[in-house]
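Annual report, structural modelling task.

Input specification for the coenzyme A complex:
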Amino acid sequence: MHNKRANNHSPSKPYLAGHAVPVRELHSGHRSEILNHLLQLGEEDRRLRFGTQTPDEVIHHYVEGLDFNRDTVFGVFDADLKLIGVAHLAYLPEINGQARAAEFGVSVLPKGRAQGLGTALLQRSAVHSRNSNIQTLYVHCLANNKAMMHLAQKAGMTVEYAYGDADAYLKLPPANPSSIVAEAANEQWADFDYALKENLKLANQAWWWFLGRPGHAR
Ligand SMILES: CC(C)(COP(=O)(O)OP(=O)(O)OC[C@H]1O[C@@H](n2cnc3c(N)ncnc32)[C@H](O)[C@@H]1OP(=O)(O)O)[C@@H](O)C(=O)NCCC(=O)NCCS
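The model returned the following structure:
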């Protein structure tokens, strides 16, 4: 089920070139990269992501508090292995007799937008939730967040508005062999993509060492 494809090719927008977006599951070793990603968000993007004004100290606190054993964090890396998109899937406490639920929060840096990264992170989170026996996926956001509302509706989420906020939710069917294979395939593709970018980066560094980095006098 994964990932947006498009036909036009632009080197600055690699995921519009018809490639599936590789989404990797992150772990605690990625904490500083997640922090760096979030600190790059401007004031308005932070407000849209966290629902309120969010100074640097709050972001530091949020990242320190991420519990990778309890929640799942996904990322998309650019060609320099910098995190260009991050999604946090937070599992909500179980309440007796109620469906298990998770809340989704996402950010994509401005230079990576409109290439399907947000969609891919939402799709991956939905499949992962489904495979983790989660029955409802929520997104809580500001009602004027047009891009997120569009993403949510495109993913088939039902949106309810109240007092300037919006809650979007998606009822997930139980896991089946194809949802498990879909997730495993994306995970493998993301590992392969990361290894490729890592090798390319090392090869570039070796050439820069010999020849000097373009635009940098030695
Ligand atoms: C919301 C966000 C994650 C989307 O990321 P993205 O990588 O650009 O998402 P995609 O490229 O997959 O899709 C964006 C879609 O929204 C649409 N869109 C963008 N801005 C829009 C707007 N102002 N009004 C309506 N639709 C809009 C795009 O056209 C695109 O639709 P399409 O796929 O049908 O062409 C990104 O804008 C972001 O990080 N915003 C700041 C943080 C935030 O708002 N997080 C969500 C709350 S948790």
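The domain at 14-204 is CATH 3.40.630.30 (Aminopeptidase).
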